[in-house]
Request: fold
Amino acid sequence: MTTVGQPLVSARGVRKQFGPLQVLKGVDLDVHPGEVVVILGPSGSGKSTFLRCVNHLERIDAGSITVDGELVGYEQRGGRIHRLPERRIARTRRQIGMVFQHFNLFPHLTVLGNVIEAPVGVLREPKAEVVERARALLDKVGLADKADSYPRQLSGGQQQRVAIARALAMRPKLMLFDEPTSALDPELVGEVLGTMRDLAADGLTMVVVTHEISFAREVADRVVFMDGGTIVESGTPAEVLDRPANPRTRAFLARFL
Ligand code: ADP
Ligand code: MG
Reply:
C-alpha cells in the first residue's frame, strides 16, 4: 500500500471529553485512499468515540480532523475557526458510511427498501437508478435473492450485510465499521468479514474497529492499537500483531492467544 499523496482522513491532536472524563487525549491518524486501517484496543479506550468524531456525530474539543481535505464540524473563515451549522454537518456526513454493532434496519421496509431509502429519500436520486445500484450492491454482499424479504426474516449476519449495502448505496468516500461482528453468533461472523474483505479488495477506504485479529492480519494495511484515549502503537499487521513494541499492546494481544 502506497501512502503518497493527500490522506483521505487526517486526524491531529484530537481531544474529546465527556464532562470530567477525557476520552480522547490527542489522537493522530492518517488514512490514505484505498487503505484499510484496523483499530484494536480494550473496551473504553475511545475507539467508538474516535469513529464518531470522524463521522461528525461528536464534536471534538481540540485538534482537527479533515476528511478529503475538509475540516470536520468546523470551517476556516476570515482567519478564524468557526463551528459549522448542523445542516452543513449533515451534508458532509453523507460522504461517510458507518456500520455499527447493531444494524438498526427499518423493520417495516424490505431489504431493497432499506438499501434505497437514503439515496431516494435524502439525496432525491431517481428511484430507478437507485434500485439498479441497490440490486448490484445486494448481489455484491451475497443477498440478491433477499431483496424482497423483511429484516426479521434474515439472520443477524444477513442483516448486517444489508446494513453494509445500505451504507454503500450512498456511495461514501469512506466506510467506518464499529465492531460490526460483535453482536453476531460466532457462526455468522465469517460471512460479514468475508463481505468486508471483498470491499477492501475493491479498494474501498475503510477504518474498522474489531477484535477479529485474523481479519486484521489478513486484510489491514495498517493496524493501530488504542489505549487510554491515544494511539500507542501503529504499523503493519506483522509489526503490531507479531512484534508489538509496546507492553500494553502485548498484554492486550496475549488475551487472543
Ligand atoms: P471503546 O469504543 O474503545 O470501548 P468508547 O469510545 O465507547 O470506547 O468510550 C470511551 C469512554 O468514553 C468510556 O469510558 C465511555 O463510558 C465514555 N463515553 C463514551 N461516550 C460517552 C458519552 N456520550 N457520555 C459520557 N461518556 C461517554
Ligand atoms: Mg466501542
Residues 220 and 237 are 7 Å apart (CA to CA). The longest helix spans residues 186-201. The chain has a mean pLDDT of 94. The pocket of magnesium ion (ligand 2) is lined by residues 47-48, 178-179 (CB under 6 Å).
